[in-house]
TrEMBL record:
<dbReference type="GO" id="GO:0004644">
    <property type="term" value="F:phosphoribosylglycinamide formyltransferase activity"/>
</dbReference>
<keyword id="KW-0658">Purine biosynthesis</keyword>
<dbReference type="Pfam" id="PF00551">
    <property type="entry name" value="Formyl_trans_N"/>
</dbReference>
<feature type="active site" description="Proton donor">
    <location>
        <position position="109"/>
    </location>
</feature>
<dbReference type="InterPro" id="IPR004607">
    <property type="entry name" value="GART"/>
</dbReference>
<feature type="binding site">
    <location>
        <position position="107"/>
    </location>
    <ligand>
        <name>(6R)-10-formyltetrahydrofolate</name>
    </ligand>
</feature>
<dbReference type="GO" id="GO:0005829">
    <property type="term" value="C:cytosol"/>
</dbReference>
<feature type="binding site">
    <location>
        <begin position="12"/>
        <end position="14"/>
    </location>
    <ligand>
        <name>N(1)-(5-phospho-beta-D-ribosyl)glycinamide</name>
    </ligand>
</feature>
<feature type="site" description="Raises pKa of active site His">
    <location>
        <position position="145"/>
    </location>
</feature>
<dbReference type="GO" id="GO:0006189">
    <property type="term" value="P:'de novo' IMP biosynthetic process"/>
</dbReference>
<dbReference type="InterPro" id="IPR002376">
    <property type="entry name" value="Formyl_transf_N"/>
</dbReference>
<protein>
    <recommendedName>
        <fullName>Phosphoribosylglycinamide formyltransferase</fullName>
        <ecNumber>2.1.2.2</ecNumber>
    </recommendedName>
</protein>
<feature type="binding site">
    <location>
        <begin position="90"/>
        <end position="93"/>
    </location>
    <ligand>
        <name>(6R)-10-formyltetrahydrofolate</name>
    </ligand>
</feature>
<dbReference type="InterPro" id="IPR036477">
    <property type="entry name" value="Formyl_transf_N_sf"/>
</dbReference>
<comment type="similarity">
    <text>Belongs to the GART family.</text>
</comment>
<feature type="binding site">
    <location>
        <position position="65"/>
    </location>
    <ligand>
        <name>(6R)-10-formyltetrahydrofolate</name>
    </ligand>
</feature>
<dbReference type="InterPro" id="IPR001555">
    <property type="entry name" value="GART_AS"/>
</dbReference>
Amino acid sequence: RPKILILVSGEGSNLQALIEASRERDYPADIVAVGSNQAKAPALAKAAHANIPTFVIEHGRYGSRDEFDGALMQEIRRHNPDLIVLAGFMRILTEGFVRALRGQLLNIHPSLLPKYTGLNTHQRALNAGDKLHGVSVHFVTEELDGGPIVAQAQIAVGADDSAETLAQKVQAQEHVLYPIVVRWCCEGRVQLGAEQVLFDGQALHQPLVL
Ligand code: GAR
């Protein structure tokens, strides 16, 4: 069975959604470990509560990004996962790290990429007057939030929405979308090809939309 390792920094609501999905009888993978760069991340308690092994690599203890990523890579290799799922992991990974794990690293980002890479995505969508907003799941490549997109879920932006209400609506979609995309990856239906995402062996010219 494919093994998943999940990296977190914060609340872990996406982690919780993945834990619940992985408990479904026909889910095709096991979560073997959860790692965090934040010792106090509430996500760690959620993992422990589900009896999933956890580890912490605190970035403050390392002198450089390379050292941090080296320590993280060592932990990852120890668990030998097939897929590494970033679920609210708020550290930028080095090029070498990302290249070594090409096709095995998934990220979820709270915008309709390529719009709004980086932070404050909900406020930026509001400021731009966007009528549609949402979430993207993509393979991680050297380009920040720029790797090939597998799938997106959209929400409508209402006249009375704030950054907070948008965050809630987007997160509700995240919790549906991420378990589905992770499932497809573990079933081998979604793969990263030379330049684009392959879905059932065919190049995906546009993200799938939920
Ligand atoms: C999620 O909304 C995720 O999209 C976002 O952080 C949140 C984590 O929530 N990720 C990023 O902004 C990545 N740059 P969670 O800890 O409750 O899953």
